[in-house]
């Protein structure tokens, strides 16, 4: 899983009330926080040192916590970032959209690939096949993996198809149709309505485009 850290920047200080020194530095210093899962966070400090914070236990590997036993600025920083929505709470991690750089918080056990709302495929969406550049209309999205879905009479899985070798076998599959159904003298030509199954990452959602 490709997790991402919060931006390394200072946080705004409250305009009212006074903060003790550790709380002030927890906000004022540029630090980035990476959720690792299991309630663990990696904090990169302004001095480029990296400390491991255990939020469930309220512990940190920095000298201030280890030798003085205090609630150090790193533990405070993680707590503030969780409260402000900059860093995911325990049980969740921050990941980037597969097709853009937007960051989402997901359950730490959720399998990828991950997509932002704009790039999530829904039935009726138009998508581009990265292999052929063809436009397709999505008719079905599922949680089934490409290496578990069999297509064709010989039991070949979607992942085993030669044209799918560039895509991870453990991604979910998407069913799509070629939208330009051919109409013959007796109505729609049946093969034009055939649903083809693709590994999710082979399709790119076309956003803001004209329907085909
Ligand atoms: Zn610390
Ligand atoms: Zn996206």
Structure description:
The chain has 212 residues and is α+β, with helices and mostly antiparallel strands. The protein has two domains: 1-120, no CATH class; 126-205, no CATH class. Helix content is 12%, strand content 28%. It is built from three helices and 13 strands. The strands form four sheets. It has a five-stranded antiparallel β-sheet, with no helix packed on it. A four-stranded antiparallel β-sheet has the order 1-2-3-4. Strands 5-6 form a two-stranded antiparallel sheet. Strand 3 (50-54) and strand 4 form a beta hairpin. The longest helix has 11 residues, at 73-83. The radius of gyration is 24 Å and the shape is elongated. The two termini are 34 Å apart. The site of one zinc ion has 8 residues, from helix 2 and helix 3.
Q: Mind summarizing the main beta sheet? A: 5 strands, antiparallel
Number of domains: 2
Query: What hetero molecules are bound to the protein chains?
Result: zinc ion
Overall 3D form: elongated
Number of helical elements: 3
Number of strands: 13
Radius of gyration: 24 Å
The chain-level structural class is alpha+beta
As a percent range, the share of strand residues is 25-35%
The separation of the N and C termini measures 34 Å
Order of helices and strands: HEEEEHHEEEEEEEEE
- Please state how the strands of the largest beta sheet are arranged side by side: 12-9-8-7-13
Q: Helix proportion of residues, in percent?
A: 10-25%
Poorly predicted runs are none
Mean pLDDT: 91
